[in-house]
Amino acid sequence: MQLKYQCGTIDQVLEVDAQIPEFARKTTKAKIITRLADANSLILVASHEGKPIAYKLGYQVSKDIFYSWIGGVVPAYRKQGIASQLRLRQEAWAIKNGYKQLMVKSMNRYPAMLQLLISAGYQISGYQDKGDPDSSKIMFSKCLGG
C-alpha cells in the first residue's frame, strides 16, 4: 500500500476525525483554529489514493516544548505503523525546529496509544484526574536531546 505523508489542513483533520468511532466528542474547526491561534503548529496527514486516512496535530506551548495534541487513524488502516510514522515525522520536525521536549496526553480508554507512547520512549510525567479512570488524562513527555 502506497501512502503519502505531508503537511495537511484542518479540513483533512476533520475528514479523518469524522471516521474515528472512539472520538465521541468530535473536534470542531473552531476549536482547532482557536487552539492553533498564535502558535507555531504542525498538521501531518497520511493519505491513501488521495484520501486522508490519518493525522497528527500539534503546536508550540513554549520555546522548548511542542505539544502533540490530537491524532488518529481510520480503523481500516490501523496496525500498519501509520501512527508510528506520523509520530516519527512529528518528532523529526520538532527537533529540526529547535524543540527540546515533546509532550502528549492520552487516556486509559486508548490502550494502543499508551503502548505506542511507552514503546517510543515517552515517560509518564503527570495525571489529570477527571473523576473516573477512563476520562482522566495521563501526561507523557519525551526529551528530544540537545
Entry summary:
This protein has helices spanning 10-17, 29-36, 82-96, 111-119, and strands at residues 3-7, 41-48, 51-60, 65-73, 101-107, 123-128, 137-143.
Outline the structure in words.
- By secondary structure, the protein is an alpha+beta fold.
- Helix content is 27%, strand content 36%.
- The chain is built from 4 helices and 7 strands.
- The chain has helices spanning 10-17, 29-36, 82-96, 111-119; strands spanning 3-7, 41-48, 51-60, 65-73, 101-107, 123-128, 137-143.
- It has a 7-stranded mixed beta sheet, with helices on both faces.
- A hairpin with an 8-residue loop joins strand 6 (123-128) and strand 7.
Per DSSP, the total helix count is: 4
Into which percent range does the helicity of residues fall?
A: 25-40%
Mean pLDDT: 93
Can you summarize the main beta sheet? 7 strands, mixed
Give the uncertain stretches in residue-range form: none
Structural class: alpha+beta
Total strand segments? 7
Estimate the global geometry from the Cα principal axes: globular
Distance between the termini: 36 Å
Strand order of the largest sheet: 1-2-3-4-5-7-6
Radius of gyration: 15 Å
Secondary-structure element pattern, one letter each = EHHEEEHEHEE
Percent of residues in beta strands: 35-45%
Explain the layout of strands and helices.
Blueprint: E1 3-7, H1 10-17, H2 29-36, E2 41-48, E3 51-60, E4 65-73, H3 82-96, E5 101-107, H4 111-119, E6 123-128, E7 137-143
Parallel strand pairs: 4-5
Antiparallel strand pairs: 1-2, 2-3, 3-4, 5-7, 6-7
